Amino acid sequence: MYKDIPPELKSLLDERRLLIISVSKAVRQSKVTALARNKYICEVADKIVFVGVNEKSSLFGLQEEFRNKLLP
Fold first, then answer.
1. Is residue 48 a contact partner of residue 69, using CB atoms and an 8 Å limit?
2. In whole angstroms, what is the distance from residue 45 CA to residue 8 CA?
3. How far is CA 12 from its chain centroid?
4. 8-17 burial, b if ≥16 CB within 10 A, otherwise e?
């Protein structure tokens, strides 16, 4: 994702306040790898917030699947 971590992200990583996740070594993400990444994040998250998701959104299925983790 980054050859060099930008300084503004480095401090967050050092403080363990930022996690960078990639499920692919590809330079650019495809729909399949983006969905895999988003599903993984939903699986490991304690709570999830989806904003602006509707039936046409690619995130709609994940919102339905992980409804039990949604913040009220």
1. yes
2. 24
3. 17
4. eeeeeeeeee
Could you tell me the pTM of the whole model? 0.68
Lookup: tokens for 28:
């650019």
pLDDT digits 0-9 by tens, 6-60:
888 999 999 988 888 776 777 788 888 889 889 999 999 989 999 999 999 999 9
Give pLDDT, residue 19.
84
Contacts of 15 (CB under 8 A, 6+ apart): none
Neighbours of 62 (CB within 10 A): 19
- Please classify residue 59 by burial: count the beta carbons closer than 10 Å to its beta carbon, then call 0-12 exposed, 13-18 middle and 19+ buried: middle
Say if residues 60 and 54 touch (Cβ distance below 8 Å). yes
8 A C-beta contact, residue 40 and residue 17: no
